[in-house]
Records
---
Amino acid sequence: MQRAEVNGVELAYQLTGAGPPLVMIHGAQGDQSMFANLASAFGANFRVLTFDQRGSGLSAKPDMVYSVALLADDTAALIDQVGFSAAHVLGVSMGGMIAQELALRHPRKVRSLILGCTTCGGPKAIRPGGGALAAAYSTQPMSAEERGRALAEAAFTKEYIAQHPEVISNMIEARRQRPIEPIAFGHRMKAAYEHDTYDRLGQINSPTLVITGKNDALISWQNSSILADRIPNAKLVVLEPAGHCFWLEQPEQSRDAMLKFLG
């Protein structure tokens, strides 16, 4: 694990593989470890940068106002720091929001864009029904067991959990190893709720793949349809059955779709 100071905050990051640069941007309460399988799979063809964002994982967690634009600027600065002039960019969930802002604010740094299980935000977005989001993304202090179980049950389909019950214990262990800091997480969630790119999506000029799971209980697949409709020439892939963590439920289909796009 390496560390770099960007925009006055220290970020933990890792570089693996060889080839054209590929940056992976994690979700709201995730960290770079969520890309362990993907980074390994793509490392044969790409120089992969994964990192913990401001307020996440092993990076600094300042108590201040966060915004998706700020997190995009952090990403752009880290891209410069590691010596990439431009990179392919994959962002999932909140990471997909950050990837949108990165493409809008720093277009020359984005060779292509993969937006996974994400949304444009704002009043035009499709909001989730039920209490899955509230339970899984509560900003109140929670034990590793409570938070890990709530997120696993919201992020995966019931059928997948039935076949792979270990995902719950794995998520709980991940929260033990890298606990969520409630104050910084609250700042991150506020930033996500304020995200809105709907009226600016037409300005994205990077080749774009939008990919999601049809059974996503956290960010409806219809949000991916909105993104694909409004980003010029974007391609949409909807995987079924798959929940929010589509790349784990459908690893081969996800990898094939992304590699085909990047190729």
Note: The longest strand covers residues 9-17.
---
Amino acid sequence: MDFVQCPRGLQPGMIEPREAAVACAVRSGLVLLVILFAVGTSGCGKSPEEQKAAAAEHKAQTTGRLVVKSNHANTTVEATRLPTGSETSPASVNGVTDGALEHTLSGLPPGKYSVMARSDGWPELKQETNVSAGQTTEVAVNFKSGSLRLNSDPTGATVRLGANTLGQTPLVIPQLPLGECKLTLAYPSWPAVTFQTTITENVEATATVRLPHGKLTVQTTPPGATVLLGGRAVGQTPLTLERVSAGTRKLTLQAKDFPALELSVTVEDRGEVKISPALGSAFPVLDPEALLRAVWVPDDPNRLAPPLEGLNGPFQSQNGIVKNLNRKRVYEVWLRKQYCFTGAVKAYDPASGQIEFAEQKGELCRYRVLAKLTPAARSNRELSALLTKGATFALYGRLTAVEEPRWPSKMITFEISSVEPLR
């Protein structure tokens, strides 16, 4: 049998048990309806968007906003709440003023804040302000500055303040920090130059910075070589460069049929340098004694050997004499290549253009060098006047023959053709 709690005020026996149960159920249902109605009207029926908006409204009413306005772009702002009493300082809030020169820090707990503003190359600015719940506080950050009208010699130098690029000269810089100011000027492929000046508030200073440079003239023999300065082609010879950065500069000269010639020149500020290199000097130096050591075949020096069997065609000797030289190796490694050579003149024949240099005594044998000028070089009267006996003459040309002597001569002959002078 179920036990039923009677309504308050009814005594057992006053009503039937079943009637008492019905009365209790009715009264309990009414209470439940009241509870459900109260819960439904308390917010459980709101959409997520409505609940989010209510939370944002609550936060806006209990926190404040800080708007920092700066007169300088790209300012980093840091706001730190100052603790009161036994409070510990919370984490600071950071922001950056972009091109709009303004940044808003939202959701700040009420209280007093220390605001720090920084910009690269400028002194830090610091001030305090109060943030109130439900309100917006504005702070103005003004970096005191002066201006500079800057030029350079040569113009077109890139100007930097710290890591910031300000532009190219001629340049007006409207805002610079007060006091000693260091700027860096860099011209393409030139070393950077540091310029220091004093900036006064609301005053425009003027300056022209000279990037140290001088003048360079390059003439080559023959002309028409491409000049590379710092790896960049700047023209063909004959060439005059009015502005070359001071210091030691590396030049590369390039011309058809010549190996690249690399040179170093030292340019002084306000100075002028003239060079006249011969492109042929880039060819390897002909060293007859070293060549002979590399191809020498030991033999009886008192006996002339007949031509080696099967040695014909390009390897064959012009005069048919094969004694101590490995002619195949001579042909494959040395002949038909360009060399430069310097020696003492023994005789010169203007009619044929042939120069005979003084004989040399090496550890293996005696040798001499014969050289034949090109028709253009032979027609140069000034050159002919220099080819006197005993004069030192430098040339470049193609090695065309290395010949062993007929009896009784014991002198190896080197022949160089298409010879041009090295000046």
Note: Confidence is low (pLDDT under 50) at residues 1-15, 20-26, 28-42.
---
Amino acid sequence: MKAAFFTHRGSVRSENQDALFVTSEAVIGDMDTYAVVNFDKFPTCLAVIDGMGGCNGGAEAARILTSAIEEAAHAGEFGSEFNMADDEAALREIMLAASNRMSGEANVNPELREMGATFAGVLIREKSVLAFNCGDCRAYRISHGALERLTRDHSVVQELFGNDIIGEDEMRSHPRKNIVTSAVSADLTEPPELYVKSASRWETDEYFICSDGVWETLPADAAEAILQGSFPNSAESLRNALMEAGCRDNISFIWSGR
């Protein structure tokens, strides 16, 4: 399998507060164009991490959470056989470890007390995939050309959508779209929410993980049309569409296929 990935500050932000974890390595900082990595070992973890924009320490929070994912993956915390309870426990340990590190930094520098990050990703195994998220980064499956969201946002607009107050496309432009209801942060009064969903994996399935800057910038049908193109070459078309759209947020994605 392959993973095509890209992360950039976007057209407006002065700093890239996103990060990626791709198969075994952290990816931090702006990329000029997309890159591709091959992988053939399972389980494989792919994740997009988004430092909370506008808060001091957003980039550092993303780095801390990415580092916690990297350490868990290298330590073999994700088992070769699917066990949803074990996967969820490993992810919660990652979130706790990252939160503790953020808290430690905030104790030294009080200006960082609001630092935090959201994330989403997939654990790919030979016969299954586990999608996960905390916050409003998303993971999708692409099956027979159709884009299916596997994760559930922790956000005000997700609650409005769930209560049939707004449509899914309205989530992209709603004035409260940036309010998340859960994140991995330095100032936790209770454990952050974690959403997990397992699914069978077919050889033709592809997976797409992105930060909110991506799904807010491109309508679902526009993204789906690009992702129906040849993999991984169409990653360049996706990168160009995002940059040309004048995205106001950082933009990061991982697209996995064959």
Note: The radius of gyration is 17 Å.
---
Amino acid sequence: MATICPTVLAADEKTYAAEMTDIAHFAHRIQIDLTDGVFAASPTVKPAEAWWPAAVKADFHLMYKFPTDAAKVVLKHQPNMIIIHAEAEGDFKPLADFCHKQNVKVGVALLPLTKPEVISKSLDLIDHVMIFSGDLGSYGGHADLALLDKIEFLKKQKADLEIGWDGGVNDQNVSQLIFGGVDVINVGGFIQQAANPGQAYEALQLIADETGTT
């Protein structure tokens, strides 16, 4: 079954607390988006300011040009996973090894123009690949379903690889994403900007559950 994973993307601590509070009572797994103001220009809270409810799995999507320092701050609080970008700089293997030693999963995000072949040699260190189809540092974006083609290559290389998607998810395309092979569907604006975030989440998860049984 695919998992609907609400995201939190907030420029300040007050907004962060409001968004987290909105989803905390129904989400089982969340994604927290952090930016460095360089790789993604829009500001967010700092890694040290991020928090989440104890009963919820938290994945951190680090939109950082140099993600190592931010990852080490987040790792102190034992998230479920750290996701860095294939387009980021720095030595990937030491960071991946450090995460795994802390029993934290490692994910890699691919921007639309990045081919999955660039990470093929590192897939033994990667637990999750996120197909990114959004706008860095902002809610919304366009779900370019042509990017689902990346999944076939990745699954041939590593059959048990978890696949995520970020960008433009709504109730009209979520079933297509699942049929395309996505396991974790990160949802920002459709939930956070809804009049009733809980109902928006439930609508997507219902579609996901029904899709998974067909």
Note: The helical segments are 13-24, 68-75, 92-101, 149-157, 174-179, 189-192, 197-212.
